[in-house]
Q: What sequence folds into this?
């Protein structure tokens, strides 16, 4: 699971958590893409702007996959490892 966290989003002290999904490469790309539930692509520039302006971060149980999808180097600040409880079985 991968979640974009926006702390104190628009006056909400609890912030906003946006679930992200992985999609196959698009437009001839070589790596997967990250996309929000509303269909918005999350690119490395978008993430870095949100990180700088809003102190946003991404929580994920697969940081290697997130870094590859965003085209960022390993151990990028703002990509946080979190183990999520699995639903279902």
A:
């Amino acid at each position: 699971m991968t979640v974009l966290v926006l702390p104190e989003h628009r006056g909400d002290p609890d912030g906003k958590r946006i679930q992200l999904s992985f999609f196959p490469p698009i437009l001839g790309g070589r790596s997967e893409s990250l996309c929000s539930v509303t269909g918005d692509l999350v690119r490395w520039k978008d993430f870095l702007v949100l990180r700088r302006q809003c102190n946003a971060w991404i929580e994920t149980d697969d940081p290697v996959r997130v870094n590859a999808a965003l085209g960022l180097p390993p151990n990028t600040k703002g990509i946080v490892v979190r183990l999520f409880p699995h639903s279902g079985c």
User: Anything to note?
Assistant: The two ends are 16 Å apart (CA to CA). The mean pLDDT is 86.
